[in-house]
Write a structure and sequence with these properties.
It contains four helices and seven strands, in the order E-H-H-E-E-E-H-E-H-E-E. The chain has a single domain, classed as Aminopeptidase (3-Layer(aba) Sandwich), CATH 3.40.630.30. Helices cover about 35% and strands about 30% of the residues. The chain has a seven-stranded mixed sheet with strand order 1-2-3-4-5-7-6.
Length: about 150
């Protein structure tokens, strides 16, 4: 399998990004697919773009294998979701390498505490647990992580 190309998402692709996001989120077992969830995620994509997201897709010859949302001014990896049929194929690691190119010194992220697969993966990738906090928008308990390039000072 060749590696998908990571590229900026185009505005006409935002609905498809929302679909990939929903399918990946549902694959965690923390939610069920619904038209309501899909509509909310699609609306959130547009909202977050207005407030500074840099949105990327992993494009596998026209099929979106994953979505990645960064908030560069805050050194924040906001969303990384791999479509279920692409999970376990190294695409998450490819997106994380891309993120480290965009944010070479420090990266912050958070993930839902109950999504153990995600936070254990981030820990294996060198992220260090910082704190837990309830997300006011969703009510989920979030685990916050930070990665720092070796030799950088806080």
């Amino acid at each position: 399998m060749h590696s998908p190309i990571i590229r900026p998402a185009e505005p006409h692709e935002y609905d498809e990004v929302g679909r990939v996001w929903m399918e990946s989120w549902v694959s965690t077992g923390l939610a069920e697919a619904s038209n309501f969830l899909l509509a909310n995620l699609r609306a959130r994509v547009r909202h977050e773009i207005e407030y500074g997201w840099s949105l990327y897709v992993a494009d596998d010859d026209g099929t979106f294998a994953a979505m990645l949302a960064l908030h560069l001014p805050d050194k924040y990896l906001d969303q990384l979701f791999v479509a279920p049929e692409y999970q376990g194929k190294g695409i998450g690691r490819q997106l994380l390498a891309f993120t480290r190119q965009q944010l070479p010194d420090e990266i912050w992220l958070r993930c839902v505490r109950e999504n153990g697969k995600a936070w254990r993966w981030y820990e294996r990738e060198g992220f260090v647990y910082e704190k837990e906090e309830v997300a006011s928008a969703t009510g989920y308990m979030m685990k916050y992580y930070r990665w720092k390039k070796e030799g950088t000072i806080r």
